[in-house]
Write a structure and sequence with these properties.
GO molecular function, one term: lipid binding
Radius of gyration: 35 Å
Number of strands: 0
Keywords: Cell cycle, Cell division, Coiled coil, Cytoplasm, Cytoskeleton, Septation
Number of helices: 6
Function: Involved in cytokinesis and septation where it has a role in the localization of F-actin.
Order of helices and strands: HHHHHH
InterPro entries: AH/BAR_dom_sf, BAR_dom, BIN3/RVS161-like, Bin3_BAR
CATH architecture: Up-down Bundle
Distance between the termini: 68 Å
Structural class: mainly alpha
CATH superfamily: Arfaptin homology (AH) domain/BAR domain
CATH topology: Substrate Binding Domain Of Dnak, Chain:A, Domain 2
Number of domains: 1
Shape: rod-shaped
CATH class: Mainly Alpha
Strand content: under 5%
Largest sheet: none
Main location: cytoplasm
Length: about 250
């Protein structure tokens, strides 16, 4: 959202009090920042959910590739382990898809709808700015005729310009008053609007990670060898790797 005022000759009279202009700029600036933050949050959430889906799809692909490994045809124990892993990855992917769908429906879509309001707000600010420039232009003309010698034609022209000024002034003041009343209300409404979405985001994450804990707990119970610590498994792997390195076909020249 951007606001570039028109440049025209300024009337001598201060037609908009400085305090009013400061209030307007402050409230509008808060909404500009809110728009930027809303866009960034929507973009970040989309990137996050895309990355989540890519992660679980990759995990399923890896377990599927392992199932097609020739070792699974030769070793029943290895086949059982990979089958358990594949089942766990598919469960993880299913829950991940549910989580992403929930976030899309209850968080990303509401963010998108909220962001769609800002173009209309921006247009209302532009209309207010145009009304202000019309007001300043006519006020400058009034001041010009007021400074001239009060002849019949000048007084007639002054009366005409003042009549033109009145509805323009009223139009600006109405637009300005409406924006000054509604911009703070719109800004404050963000809390009530977004709170249900963020609560839904937290619930979706809690449900997902609770299920992940169950899935990997079950997988660990299926794969763990009783009495084997991580250090022992690492030592066994090193021993087997040393045996492989001792083979003449992989020995260094």
């Amino acid at each position: 959202m951007s606001w570039i005022p028109f440049k025209i000759g300024q009337p001598k009279k201060q037609i908009v009090p400085k305090t009013v202009e400061r209030d307007f700029e402050r409230e509008y600036g808060k909404l500009q920042q809110l728009e930027d933050q809303t866009k960034k949050l929507q973009k970040d959430l989309k990137k996050s959910t895309d990355a989540d889906l890519a992660m679980s799809k990759s995990a399923v692909k890896i377990s599927s590739d392992l199932l097609s490994n020739p070792l699974c045809e030769q070793d029943q124990e290895f086949l059982n382990m990979v089958t358990a892993l594949d089942t766990a990855m598919k469960r993880m992917d299913a829950f991940n898809q549910e989580k992403v769908n929930q976030i899309q429906k209850t968080v990303i879509e509401p963010l998108k709808k909220f962001g769609s309001v800002f173009p209309s707000l921006n247009m209302a600010v532009k209309r207010r700015e145009q009304a202000l420039q019309d007001y300043k232009r006519l006020q400058s003309r009034v001041e010009k005729y007021e400074e001239k010698e009060k002849t019949g034609p000048v007084l007639a022209k002054l009366h005409q310009v003042r009549e033109e000024l009145r509805p323009v002034k009223d139009d600006f003041e109405a637009k300005n008053r409406q924006l000054l009343e509604e911009m703070p209300r719109f800004y404050s409404s963000r809390l009530d609007y977004f709170q249900p979405s963020f609560e839904s985001l937290i619930r979706a994450q809690v449900v997902y990670y609770t299920e992940m804990h169950k899935i990997f707990r079950d997988l660990t119970q299926q794969l763990d060898q009783p009495g084997h610590t991580d250090e022992q498994r690492e030592q066994e792997n090193e021993t087997k790797l040393s045996e492989l390195r001792a083979l003449s076909i992989v020995a260094d020249d």
